[in-house]
Structure to design on (432 residues):
């Protein structure tokens, strides 16, 4: 009975996700679902990404958080349109939440919509929100065993950012092993090594994003 | 309907949690539910804790993971009895999982049972497993905004470990602000600053645990 209901919930979510995807496609918006653990560095990465891309393409952001609007406030400071979704304790964003948030956006004017999901390496990967692609941020400080321990999110994501790469010398993170595990889980996955404090790898990441958006 | 079922699921969980708690109490076992984000350092902290306490009290460990037995293998190496629970993608441990795992343990011989939950700062806090107390590990590299962003887990936990404190100089983590937010959320919360690589704060943490177990 529990399983049956879970299927219904996911089924209903997938229906709305398909509606979202259709609208995004019609309006010419590319949508990225940005995921990762709490503190993997998603919001700082987003700030750096917006600083590089906001004068080239029109970007809007949806921020998912349990309760606060701390992240949305950070994005708003950059002059980028941002919609806050508070899940009231919920552990992921779902398609109906995105549908509702998009009602406040003029999608026809937007090239690239970035959805920063709730900080969680498990649940967000299970919910299609109608995005074009998923991206997962893994901080070096989280450890090189995380791809195999949390495989779904790495299988679902088109791209992984190995973030806080500047902290590599202070950890026992094995970059080679992590890359091998990622390629085993998802042979076509794109991997960037980034540091927002040292500005490493961000140009490559933003070039890649720009190409994704321009190819729409 | 969804909400109603969720209440039923939580209600059923709470019933089994109460049964677990009764059995733990009768057998004289103190149970800690150890939670935190992926990569906050739970397993390494556990290794260090076992090394300090295993000759003083009889400890057993239940390891919660989505798929692998990587963490259980690390604990087993220390000669400590360990039961692996694989949630097959599930984002938290619940009371029935613990009940089932405990069937393989001789509880009467155990003083202290440590349950390492799935790496997740959201969902595990919602599920009582029948523990005596919850502990949450927050890595310095996750950022000082996490207590207010993920309040439930810090409200529910009797103790917070600010872990990887050796990385403080390489981050913008504001220790004072994090401590103030923790005290606002949970005025009686106990806070330890720990580093497993530098062996900081571990004696104080283990002394505190030992007192909790001896006071049973």
């Amino acid at each position: 009975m529990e399983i049956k209901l879970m299927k219904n919930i996911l089924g209903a979510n997938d229906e709305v996700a398909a509606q979202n995807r259709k609208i995004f496609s019609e309006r010419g918006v590319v949508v990225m679902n940005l995921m990762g653990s709490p503190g993997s560095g998603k919001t700082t990465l987003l700030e750096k990404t917006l600083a590089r891309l906001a004068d080239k393409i029109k970007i809007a952001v949806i921020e998912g958080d349990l309760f606060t609007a701390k992240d949305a406030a950070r994005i708003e400071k950059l002059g980028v349109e941002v919609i806050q979704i508070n899940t009231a304790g919920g552990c992921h964003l779902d398609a109906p939440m995105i549908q509702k948030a998009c009602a406040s956006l003029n999608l026809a004017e937007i090239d690239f919509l970035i959805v920063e999901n709730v900080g969680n390496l498990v649940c967000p990967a299970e919910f299609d929100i109608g995005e074009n692609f998923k991206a997962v941020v893994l901080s070096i400080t989280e450890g090189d065993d995380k791809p195999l321990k949390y495989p779904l999110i790495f299988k679902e994501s088109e791209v992984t950012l190995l973030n806080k790469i500047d902290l590599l010398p202070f950890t026992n993170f094995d970059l080679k092993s992590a890359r091998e595990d990622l390629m085993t889980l998802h042979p076509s996955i794109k991997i960037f090594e980034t540091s927002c404090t040292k500005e490493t790898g961000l140009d490559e990441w933003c070039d890649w994003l720009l190409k994704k958006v321009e190819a729409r």
In short: Chain B has a mean pLDDT of 94. Helices of chain B lie at 2-27, 42-53, 70-76, 95-102, 146-149, 151-156, 175-185, 202-214. The radius of gyration of chain B is 17 Å.
